[in-house]
Amino acid sequence: xxxxxxxxxxxxxxxxxxxxxxxxxxxxxxxxxxxxxxxxxxxxxxxxxxxxxxxxxxxxxxxxxxxxxxxxxxxxxxxxxxxxxxxxxxxxxxxxxxxxxxxxxxxxxxxxxxxxxxxxxxxxxxxxxxxxxxxxxxxxxxxxxxxxxxxxxxxxxxxxxx
Length: 162
What we know:
The model has no long low-confidence stretch (mean pLDDT 93). The protein contains 6 helices and no strands. Helix 2 runs parallel beside helix 4 (80-102). It has one domain (2-157). 78% of the residues lie in helices and 0% in strands.
């Protein structure tokens, strides 16, 4: 397990590529569970346990669905397992980094979370660049667009005050 964490950390530092990850359906299922648990922990205080679980499941399902459709549409359906695993694994690492920051509050914590969001978009761009065989600028633009889309959709489906 430590080897996998190190791989995802190296992927977050842009030192490895998603295609260096084994295309393992078992690993993908494990990462789905871990991603839901980390997301649940991050949003757990809002709206109760069931609302947080619904939001966490929706976030992971949305990412997987958009990725599947996009890879299929652009002729790379065989890359789904590795790409999804890479995105989920790096998301878990980023979520674990965000956990202590999200509980702090204040300007410095908000700035750190904003920097973490920017870093996450760059990591997503790095992964998408390899998955779709596109340039880094276009991949980062796609990652930024997806981030805004998913945050917007999830905030409509799961309003903060509900």
